[in-house]
Write a structure and sequence with these properties.
Largest sheet of chain A: 8 strands, mixed
Shape of chain A: globular
Low-confidence stretches of chain A: none
Radius of gyration of chain A: 20 Å
Mean pLDDT of chain A: 93
Helix content of chain A: 25-40%
Largest interface: A-B, 72 and 72 residues
Strand content of chain A: 25-35%
Distance between the termini of chain A: 39 Å
Number of helices of chain A: 8
Oligomer: homodimer
Structural class of chain A: alpha+beta
Number of strands of chain A: 14
Chain lengths: 303, 303
């Protein structure tokens, strides 16, 4: 396959999705997006490396799906609606047409469901395969949900159930958990509903694990937290997996006092797992004991 | 270095550059940009892999500079003004604090000169080092310069001199050419001036080589071209390097009949190198003979 053929294969899989906002898509030096008046645009980018974030034997459509899902999950965490994405694809040695088509297919499936237009990207060869997705979403001006708004007295919630992503990584034989690991579902509708209902004082997505991600939210807000013992666990997941496992892509958010939170929203269960407290920023207590953040820090073991 | 320390090192190098358009920068799930009314936004992304686009012995500040320069050159080619960038950085084994600081320094130098705000990104470890820069620029609504507007009878121009990027790759002992290879200068001011003067019918940047990039412009416009023998060559560069060498980051553009083009603009020489012709789309003749596009196609030698 040459560059032209690869591009053609990727484009052929994409849903027909015309919007006057994408003035110019794939094929020029850059893509052109025409903003609406009164909107803020939200930008995120995520890289996935073979051998690090996925393995050569993963189904290629899962690799394409997950590359987009990781970025869309960040948009969900801001309460944003996806607009478009750029995909950079580096092909490792031994990767051919079938793999590219599978990746394009997986990317396109999620793009179609989430109304995300593939507007451009970059193609190259490298020592190992690598994908990078930049996604852009929109919110009404001033309405994006951030990490830095949690205040003592707020309650802490998570969507869905935790630990399934990690369980699926460790146990390829458990189909449900494996699907969660391979094809995570970004909580886009939930993120938008939480924004429009005005319930949320801070929000982020859980990609690296509850303990490390919660620590990040607390540090950004300058507060501490007490977690109760009641974590909603994915069936079969251990408490350690629920506390520290990555790849769940659920939403973690805080709600101010006196606001009522439904038990579920957008078909997703919402669980009160603890409370924001004053104290040393970033400190977490779990059943009364200090909890050390142990999620996925890419550099924890590095020099 | 852990993730927090790496982020801190990168942020410390960035110029203080406050703009009300970047509502939220580094540190949340996503960055927030507030568009002006009446502007189109232009998006481009470029990946650089160790061993492919740079070597381990390259000065790290050149690697950071070039990663941003490649994307800014695409913005220049649209006639856009840079607004912000996202940087994804994957660190290979053996890469430490000094390399990260050097990359951040090089990126920051060009960011300061081009008024580009580093608004976010992604950090990871991988089997080899890799950088990806997504850059966003703005143009007045409907004014971006595209590849697809060349018409028979238009004249073809290039900025600057060609072949220096390739010469600098092949000859590390030639300081001037080496600088062009390591620290290319995106033609941002020239791109904006060409847009505001309304001279240009199509434009792109030269990153992979004149012959292959011109072929792409011609294919997008559905036209052919005749090149004269007069290519502006970088001192010491061969005609082959000027025709097919990559990494020049000059602008290639076409101008409609009857419009006068200055000999230089923004301190950069502009040279009439040929003319757009009707004929088989993408076909190039050079001194009367058919010219085969031979620039840098990442996949030319791949299966």
């Amino acid at each position: 396959m040459n560059e032209h053929e690869i591009l053609k294969a990727i484009r052929a899989k994409q849903p027909v999705c015309r919007t006057p906002r994408i003035v110019l898509g794939i094929g020029d030096d850059a893509a052109i997006y025409r903003p609406r008046s009164g909107e803020d645009l939200v930008f995120t980018t995520d890289m996935m490396h073979e051998g690090r974030h996925f393995l050569p034997d993963y189904p290629p459509d899962a690799v394409g799906w997950k590359a987009l899902a990781r970025s869309l999950s960040d948009l969900a965490a801001m309460g944003a609606r996806p607009q478009f994405a750029l995909l950079s694809l580096a092909l490792g040695p031994g990767v051919g047409a079938e793999w590219v088509e599978g990746v394009a297919q997986g990317f396109a499936s999620l793009a179609a469901r989430s109304h995300t237009v593939l507007a451009g990207g970059d193609l190259s060869r490298a020592g190992h395969s690598c994908l990078e997705v930049m996604a852009c979403g929109s919110v009404p001006k001033g309405c994006a949900l951030r990490r830095d708004g949690a205040r003592p007295g707020d309650r802490i919630f998570v969507s869905g159930r935790l630990g399934g992503g990690q369980l699926g990584l460790e146990r390829p034989d458990m189909p449900g958990a494996r699907q969660r690991h391979l094809r995570p579902q970004p909580r886009l509708l939930l993120g938008e509903l939480l924004r429009t209902r005005g319930l949320v004082s801070s929000m982020m997505d859980l990609s690296d694990g509850l303990s490390i991600d919660l620590e990040r939210l607390l540090l950004a807000s300058g507060v501490a937290a007490r977690l109760s013992g009641r974590l909603p666990r994915y069936p079969g997941a251990t408490e350690q997996q629920a506390l520290h496992g990555g790849d769940d892509y659920e939403l973690l958010f805080t709600v101010g006092p006196g606001r009522s939170v439904p038990h579920s929203l957008a078909g997703t269960r919402l669980t009160h797992i603890g409370d924001v407290a004053s104290g040393s920023p970033g400190q977490i207590t779990f059943r009364g004991d200090a909890l050390r953040a142990q999620g996925w820090d890419h550099f924890r073991d590095a020099s």
